[in-house]
Amino acid sequence: MISIGFIGAGRLGTAFGLYLVRRGIQVAGYYSRTYAHAKDAADLLGGEVQAFHSLRELLEHSDWVAIATNDGAIPQIARDIAESGVHIKEKVVFHMSGAATSTLLAPLADKGALVASLHPLQSFADGISGARAMEEAVFSVEGHEEAVVRLSKWVDKLGHTRFLLDAEHKPLYHAAASVASNSLAGVIGYAVELMMKVGMDEEKSLSALAPLIKTTVCNVLDKGAARALTGPVARGDIGTVAMHLQALDKTNPELVSFYKELGKVTLATAKREQLRNEDAIRQLSKLLE
């Protein structure tokens, strides 16, 4: 059985490591910027998982290496591994960035390592809840041909859906993931802010919107975004959209521009399946300028 060592003991590294241990995969341990962080992660996983004092120590105890740090740290880590003096030929080394490609690990490829990027399409609030979230994650794989083969087989055995990416497509792929997760949270935050303008506190606003948010997401997953779309834009209801804008302009003019930008995206989605009235489309487009 392969043992995996983690460089980086943040939310992603801890969540993935905990998930793997629960699936019976051997995790050698963690190396992090501070020994305390590595020890916290190792203690959470328990068993024989170690906290390593040095990068060299982790490399010597791991068959595969997962780099779960922020993107900016990856190039230096790759250089540090390459200069460590540890034999890494044919060792699988992958980073878990969504946007960056395996080219960041070029110094390791030059030493004969099998390099790749492996990214779970999931959001991780903390290690424990993240380990549960990992169970449903879909993975993208990109990199050296042999590394991709090995990682793909491994992900398949774990029971996950995965797909292969060309390096040139990773930034666009990650943009899609960011919009689906981060921007969604931002939009919900905007909706909560609007609800608070009518006198509700943040907690009550989110609680009131929660059933609508959940139903909308379920409908999108079931029917697709264009067919699941409801509301005034999908209906071509110019009067209601105009009323929204008038209310915002009167009470919170600083919120108008974001409403218009969201409206443009919504209109583009509506035109794909539901809204065919050219006059309504033209008037809505004018309103949202």
Automatic annotation (TrEMBL):
Record domain DUF2520: where: 138-264
InterPro entries with a match to the protein in the record: 6-PGluconate_DH-like_C_sf, DUF2520, NAD(P)-bd_dom_sf, OxRdtase/DH_put_Rossmann_dom, TM1727-like_C_sf
Annotated ranges, domain Putative oxidoreductase/dehydrogenase Rossmann-like: 2-120
Protein name: Predicted oxidoreductase, contains short-chain dehydrogenase (SDR) and DUF2520 domains
Organism of derivation: Aneurinibacillus migulanus
